[in-house]
Each structure stands twice: as structure tokens, then as C-alpha cells.
Amino acid sequence: MINPVQPNPCKILSVKKESQHEWTYRVATDAKPEHGQFMQLSIPMIGEAPISVSAQGDGWLEFTIRNVGKVTNVIFEKTAGDTLFLRGPYGKGWPVEQFKGKHMVVITGGTGLAPVRSMLNFFAANPGYVKDVTLICGFKNEEGIVFHSELETWKSKFKTIYALDNDTKEGWRTGMVTAFVKEIPFDQWGDDYAVVVVGPPPMMKFTGLELIKCNAKAENIWMSFERKMSCAVGKCGHCRIDEVYVCLDGPVFPYTVARDLVD
Amino acid sequence: MNRDINVKKVRLNCFRQSKVPGVFMLQMRVPGGTVAAKYLTYVQHIAETWGDGSFHFGTRQTFDIPGIQYDDIPAVNEYLETYIREVDSEMCGADMNTVAHEPHPWDPKSGYPTIGARNITGCIGNYHCICGNINTFELARKIESIIFPSHYHIKINISGCPNDCNKAHMCDFGIIGTSKIDYHPERCLGCARCVEQCEHAATRVLSLNEATGKIEKDPCCCVGCAECARVCPASAWTRREKPLYKVILGGRTGRQTPRAGKMFLNWASEDVILGVLKNWQKFSAWVMDYKPEYLHGGHLIDRAGYKKFKEIILEGVELNPECLVAEDIFWHETEYRSNFNVKPLSMHHTAGPKA
Amino acid sequence: MSYILNTQQADKVLGALAEKYGVYAPKRFVNQGRYSATDSIRYDKVSSASEIVWQVKSDYPAKEVINPIQQAIFYFTEDEYRASKAKEQPVLIFARPCDINAQKIQAKILAGNGGFTDMYYERMRERVKFILMDCNGGDDTCFCVSMGSNTVDESDYAAAVKFSDQGMEVKVIDPELEPFFAGCDTCGFTPEFVKENELKVTVPDLSDKEVRLALKKHPMWQEFNSRCVSCGACTVACSTCTCFTTRDVIYGENPEVGERRRVTASCQIAGFDQMAGQREFRSTAGDRMRFKVLHKFHDYKARFGDRHMCVGCGRCTHRCPELISISATVNKVNAAVEEIKASMGKA
User: Fold this and answer.
1) Is residue B269 part of a domain?
2) Would you give the distance in Å from CA A48 to the centre of its chain?
3) HSE-CB for C63 with a 13 A CA cutoff
4) Within chain A, which residue ranges are assigned CATH 3.40.50.80?
5) pLDDT exceeding 70 applies to what percent of chain B?
6) Does any domain span residue B186?
7) Is A263 on the interface with C (CB under 8 A)?
8) In whole angstroms, what is the distance from residue C345 CA to residue B169 CA?
9) Do B283 and B309 contact (CB within 8 A), yes or no?
10) Any idea which architecture A96-258 has in CATH?
11) Which of C84, C106, C116, C264 to mutate to test the interface with A (most CBs of A within 10 A)?
12) How confident is the model at residue C347 (pLDDT cuts 50, 70, 90)?
């Protein structure tokens, strides 16, 4: 009998400190997740948590973990050569096929950048896959900024707006990401664009409303949810919203579905 | 009004002297504070036939009927026969032909043979209350036959749980119903609802062990209220089959040395409670040299000293294994006799040689 | 074949069954109820008929046998998670129709949802055969007929039993059980099902998305902010609730060795949807009640299609310490839906 919740041991290849609270772990695994999918990551005696795949390559995956919980705390003690346990990948990722040839808009808040990072790297590595990329990244403050080197790389490849909520930084703008939505030329794009939004729940909610206000079509918007999960396979019930299970039907949802979900 | 009445004799018969010479108030015993509602018609009848038509809830849960003329007492007593027989003799099994366990034929037309051991009070207990651990009036009825009739004074209050609504702490012999609790970790969700409740309503002996997701308990300070069992959504805490009791000893009100009682027994079985109370007459008789006088039970313990009290009261009582007995008790009286806390400094006697 | 057994015969047959099977049935736990001098009736192993409580509905559902409140799913060391071993003894569960139907519902989630089958559920379920207990009508919290869970098919049980003070009548379906009744008197017993409950519940029509969205915002849920204490007793007692949390536990002082446990969880208890370092999505008792009620009377069916999740066993009402009645709550939903439809001109 297959045990869908069986964790498998994986070696940590490297650990990179993104910010004071966010570290990226590169782990050896043959898993080939789609962009935007997540894995269940566990450590004996601490437990298990869903973590989105923030980058992937041949024989490895990266997970960017924020030090907030019981599980993540202990992960921070792990170094290269140590073992982590993985199962997955799970859920529905970004419908990258549907984005092909379109104007791409990516709006993120804080570590919401992690679940789109591998897709952004894919767009950067495959110019022409999408027409162009408009990337709006917001962070609370300078300490919260993650993926510094990628942000630099993307700056040269995409149209970027990087912003801090209440802080100033050279070359960066100040304000919530919602404030910059009106700068996206949806009216010039017809129906030929796709928008993805990831961040904390209020950020996604207000960004969605702002997008609609700026004439973006609900059908062209996707969002990625983060919810508590114990099993990631539709059993434990923690991530259910209405008739939807975030682990199975998400974490990526079309906005037409996401806007009506009531926790 | 010029009446020659032996008020002490009348008091012994459970009629209390009033401000008006020759007018008395009847006190009907209601062991545990619960009797069939039909007896209210007796109360009404007495009050309207011989009393002033009113009725008072006695502070010791007696039915009190004021305004009874001395000359009507024989008629009232005759009417009381059915009540005393049904309640004390038949329901509680009190042997009305004894006083303090000595043969003493009762004239059924003469009313209560003695006021000595006061009416046993009780909260409603687990007959009704969601917090109660014991059936207070069933216990009261068992005790009634042990302490009544007797000229020796004792006030017993029974509370169904350690919330002590019935003030077991403020009488000679207070009984509090408790439960020993079993934990079933296999049923525990780790929600810590019990921890919250124990913190909020009891002695804060529970804590959630984050590493195991289970509850840990400091059994030493558990008061046995069973609030954990009451609030657990999954029956992970359950009461043992038989309740146990705390005895709070030597509490009292009064003009001289009021004080709250202190714990004498913890986790005592019903057999222990009844066994101890069976020794009450013996203890009282010994203290007063076998001559009952009008002296409150708690004062007898003061006279004898706690050690002597313990020696006599536990004689022949086999303690259940869980039962703990106080090694010593140090009561703390309100300082009515010295008033040193409320007296101005200038009124205090100074210590040392006077100039 | 059907048989009639007196109490001694019934005890003997149960004794023989208990040697081969793990036999589980509602049992009385004296003085273990919520309040003192009250009993708790819950499922446990039995080895005689006289232990089985058939006169009244159990406080806790049969699901506890299949989905225990707690079970070890893995034993771990520093470098391995080893799944706990399955037990092999076959299991018989005495259950009323509501509890048997509840397993069909639990299976939709645990053995199907998203194409994943939970190994722990499935391997247990494979060992289980039900013995249908004739339901004497339940109590005034029951509304199985309204929820269509008053009946089961013959394929759902291995035998059907009707207990009485004199013994029991049995209809054996599964040939595997026939030998246990050899020599018993035969009779014409066939199980009957409750045809009508005193309590009837009308399931609200929530097919309209706009109505549903309005219902979620309706002030009716605020009542529960002050009434419901979010203890989760309703979901523990629920015949169909499946939610669980996993927890890693270490043995004693050695942090290298331990187990991963699955523990029943409740959407009614604070923290159910809370992620580390974040705010709860459903932070009030009203939110949680709305979430539970809509799952039982809309969301489950919207996903799985066949029927509503609630089987009408009434145990949530029966166990609620604050006397919140699920049927009364559903009636309030109905009233709110009427009001909403009227205000939208959809009545």
C-alpha cells in the first residue's frame, strides 16, 4: 500500500542567508515540481510544514524558509551535509503554459516572492517565452529584502518596480505594491496578459481589488495561497476553504475562484 | 406580658425565643437542605394556623416559622409528628428513641427531642449542579442519623465541590465533595482547554507539554474539582467511580473568635467521613466530661487541642489509601478580642518597662 | 440466515467472536460522563453481549475505532521515518445506520479526495466489518431521516442485530460469521430502519453563490461569538468529522527517537487554521461555527456530490456543553437564507 505521507531523507547541499530571518536551503532531490508547487518538509521531533519551492535545478530544489515557527526554527540549525525530509511535490502550480507569449505581470509582497522565484528565473533564462515581464516587489523594510542577487538580475531583464512599504532606499520606491498597479498599461494589452499575485492575505486581497479597478480582467489573474496544512493530500482538513482544498486545488488559484473563497 | 417560661427547655425543643415574651419561632430540620416539596404545605399550615403567616429560610436551611405563641407549642409539636417521622426517622434513619446514641424514648407528640446537632446544610450538589461532585443531601441524610438526636452541638455544611458555595469553611465540620481524576492520554487532543479552565477556575495544576502535546499535572495541589473533566471535549479526563471528600475543620462565625476552617482530611472516602462523625459524640462527651452544655462544637476542639481531637475522632476509623490527615492545624482567628489591627496606636499597650 | 439467541447464548457467541475478531461496540463507562454521576458511552472492545449498550445512542461515534483520536503513524530516528505497522486482527464494529453511513462519508475524504488514499485509514477499513445495530429511533437530537442516513444496504454489513432484554436476533449476511451461530434457533428476523424522527431538518438551499456569500456575512453567526466556547466537543462527537493534526513526539530525554502522531483536530478550536507567525483566518466562534455548518450542509456535497456530510446523528447537539442545537442552527440558516433571497429579489 502506498503511503502518501511518507517523508524521504534528503541531504542539504548548501545554506544561504537571504536576510536575517530568511534562509535558503538547497536540497538534493530528484523531485521535479512545477513552478509554484510546494513540498512537505519535515524534521524528526519537530514536525512537518508545507514550503514552496523557490528554485530548482538538476538534482536539487531550493526552499526559502522564514524563521517563524517551531519547524522552521530548528531548520535554522541545519547546515550542509545534514538531512531534511521531503515529500511532494503537491498542489497546482502556476499555469505557465497559459502565460506563453503574453505580457506577464508579477506582483509580490515580502516572502511571497519565493513561490514565483523559480518561474521568474525560468522567464529570465528563456527570453521570449513571455512577451515581457513587469515585476512589482514590495518589502516591509530593508531588512525584509530577499533574493538580492536575483533582484539585480531581474532588474536588467524585466520592467521592475521595487518598493519598501514605509522606508526609503536608493533606486527603490516607497509605498504599498497596490500603489503601483495603476502604472501597468492593461488598456494597451487587450486580453494579452497574465497577472500573478503572491503575498500576505490582505496584500493579495487589496491588490486584487486594485487590479480590477485598473481594468485588469479577473480571468487573467492568479494568486497563490498559503494555509496551515498537516497532510498536504486532502485529508487533514486544515487548509480547506469552502469546497476547496488549498493543498489539492491550490496553492495557485485563478482569481475568479480565489476572490469568492471565504475562510 | 408576664410569662414564666423555661426558654432553654423550649430552645432544646427547637423553638427560638423572640423579642416578644411568649412568642417563639419554630425551626424545622431539613437535612441537606432538600426535602419533598409537599412539606411546604406543612410549613404553610403551621405558619397560618399558629404562626404569623410568614416563613423564613433559616440560615442553616431550616424552615423557620416565627410568631408562634408558647401555648400553641404542644399543638404545633403534635402536628409536627408526621414531618419529623417521615423526614428524620424514615428518610434519614435517625433513631428517635436515642439521644447521643443512648436510649431515650421519644414521645412523638413532643416535637424535636433536641436542638443539639444543628441542621446539616448542603448546596444542591450533583443532583442538579454541573459542577457538583457529590449528592449532598444523600450524604446529609446518612450523617443525620449519626449526629441526631444529640444534645452535643455540631454544625455540618456540605458543599458539592471545592467552589464551596455552601461554606464548608465556616462551620465546625465542613464537607466538600471532590473527585479523583484519571487522564486518558489516548483521548487527549492537546487542546489545553483543561489547562485554561484549571488556570481560570482552580489551582493551576495543569500544563501543556509542547513536546508531547499532552497535559501534565501537579497532583499535589489538585483540589479535585473535576473542572478538567467537565470541560474536556473528548472525555480525556474522567472522574473515578466513587467521589472522595475534604473535611474543613473548626470554621465558625461568632462574636468572639470567628475564623475559617482548615483542612483536616483530604481525599477521604464516605466510609471515613461517616466513621469520623460516629466518634463525634464520644469526643464531645469526653471534652465536657459527659455533661452536654451549650457550647459550639468548634470550641471543643480548642479545649481539647487538635492532637487530642484527632486521636479520639480517628479511633477505629480505617483510612482509605488516598486519605491524608492534617498533622497539625493552625487556625487564624479574626482579632475581635484584641482588636490590635483596628485600634489606634495610642490605645495599644506599650511593651517593656514603663517610665 | 436469521437466529434468535437468549442472553446466555448471545454472550457465548460474542465471546467466541471476540477470540477471532477485535469486537467493538458502545460500552458504558460508569461515572466517566462530563458531569458527576453520569456515565460515558463510547466504543471499546467487548467480549460479551451484556457489555454492549444498545438501549441508547453512544455519546461518541463509531469512527473512533477506525480513526482513533490518536495514533502513531511513523516511528522516527534521525535519518528515517518508518510507518507504524498495521494490525492484522479482523475487526467487527457494532454500529447504527448513522455510523455506518458516516464511514462512506469519511472514506470520500480519507480514501479518495485528490486521488490520495490515506494508508492508515485504508488498512484499518480493510479489516473492518460492520454489524448493523437495529436503531430503536435514537433520541430527540436525531434527524437521520432528514439526512437520508437512516438506512444502509445489505452490502454494508456482515450481520444485523436487534438486541432486547431477552437476548438478540441476528441476521447473518457474511458466510464467515455463520459458524458462530451454529446450533442457535433460527427465526425470521430482518432489520428494520427508522422511518421517521421526531426531529426534522430542512437542509437550506445554498446552490446560489450570491446567496451563499451573503450568508457568510450574515449577522446570524455573531450569536455564536457569545454562546459557543470553541471547545470542539461537537466535532469530536461528530460521526463524520475527519480533521487531524500531526505532531512529532520524542520519547523521554532522547531527542533522536520518537513518533509522528496523528491527533484528532477540530475546526472549532482556536488555532485550527493558524500558521506560525500569522493571524488566524477564522478568529471568532461565529466564524468557526459558520465554517463547520457550511461544511456539513453545503461544502462537502459541493465537492463530492453524492450527499451532505451530516448524517443527522445529533451527537454534536447531545455533547454541546452550551446547549447549541445543530438543528436549531440549521433552522436559523434557513431563516437567514429566506431573508437574503427576499432582499435580493430571489425568493
Assistant:
1) yes
2) 19
3) 30
4) 96-258
5) 99
6) yes
7) yes
8) 65
9) yes
10) 3-Layer(aba) Sandwich (3.40)
11) C116
12) low
CATH code where residue B11 lies? 3.90.480.20
pTM to 2 decimals? 0.93
Indicate if B99 and B216 belong to the same structural domain.
no
C64 DSSP assignment? H
Residues 191-210 of A with CB under 8 A from C: 200-201
Q: Per CATH, which fold does A8-89 belong to? A: Elongation Factor Tu (Ef-tu); domain 3 (2.40.30)
| % of chain A surpassing 70 pLDDT | 98
Instruction: Name the residue in chain B with its Cα closest to that of C72.
Output: B186
- Residues contacting residue A148 through CB under 8 Å, at least 6 positions apart: A18
SS3 assignment for B320-334: CCCCEECCCCCCCCC
**Coil, helix or strand for A79?**
coil
CATH of the domain at B164: 3.30.413.10
pLDDT in tens, B226-279: 999 999 999 999 999 999 999 999 999 988 889 999 999 999 999 999 999 999
B343 located within any domain: no
Query: Given B239, B256, B272, which residue is the final one in a domain?
Result: B239
Q: Is A202 helix (H, G, I), strand (E, B) or coil?
A: helix
Q: B183, B200, B235, B270: which to substitute to probe chain C, counting the most C Cβ within 10 Å?
A: B235
Of how many residues is chain B composed? 355
**Would you call C116 and A236 a contact, using CB atoms and an 8 Å cutoff?**
no
Secondary-structure breakdown of chain B: helix, strand, coil percentages, each rounded to the nearest 5: 35, 20, 45
The rounded distance, in Å, linking the Cα atoms of B286 and B300 is 10
**How many angstroms separate the CA atoms of B223 and B179, rounded?**
9
SS3 B99: strand
Q: Where are the alpha helices (DSSP H) in B234-314?
A: 270-278, 280-287, 297-304, 306-313
Residues B118 and B27: their CA atoms lie apart, in Å, by 10
Q: CA distances (Å), C229 to each of B229, B235, C293, in order?
A: 16, 16, 16
A14-55: pLDDT as tens digits = 999 888 788 899 999 999 999 999 999 987 777 898 999 999
C255 pLDDT above the threshold of 80: no
Tell whether B221 is within 8 A of chain C (Cβ).
Answer: no
Distances from the Cα of C123 to the Cα of A125, B59, C66, C86, angstroms = 47, 65, 10, 7
CATH number of the domain to which B196 belongs? 3.30.70.20
Which residue does chain C place closest to A261, by CA atoms? C213
Smallest Cβ–Cβ distance between C255 and the set A3, A9, A45 belongs to: A45
Q: Are A92 and A29 in contact (CB under 8 A)?
A: no
Chain C residue with CA closest to B243: the answer is: C36
> Would you list the DSSP string of A177-199?
GGGGGGGS-HHHHTT-EEEEEES
Which domain-ending residue is among B214, B239, B264? B239
B115, part of any domain = no
Q: Provide the pLDDT confidence category of residue B345 given band limits of 50, 70 and 90.
A: confident
**For A41-55, A67-81, C80-94, which range has the lowest pLDDT when averaged over its residues?**
A67-81
A37 three-class SS: coil
The complex scores an ipTM of 0.94
- Give me the number of domains chain B comprises: 3
pLDDT grade for B1, boundaries at 50, 70 and 90:
low
Question: Nine-digit cell at B199?
Answer: 488556570
**CA gap C253, B344 in Å, rounded:** 61
Domain span at residue B249? 121-177+243-325
Query: Among A74-83, A180-189, B51-60, B254-263, which is the least confidently predicted range?
Result: A74-83
Query: A126: which DSSP letter?
Result: S
Average pLDDT over residues A182-207: 95
Question: Is the same domain home to B147 and B161?
Answer: yes
What nine digits make up the cell of C318? 447531545
Please state which of the ranges C67-71, C190-194, C273-277, C310-314 shows the lowest mean pLDDT: C273-277
Cell numbers for A55: 528554485
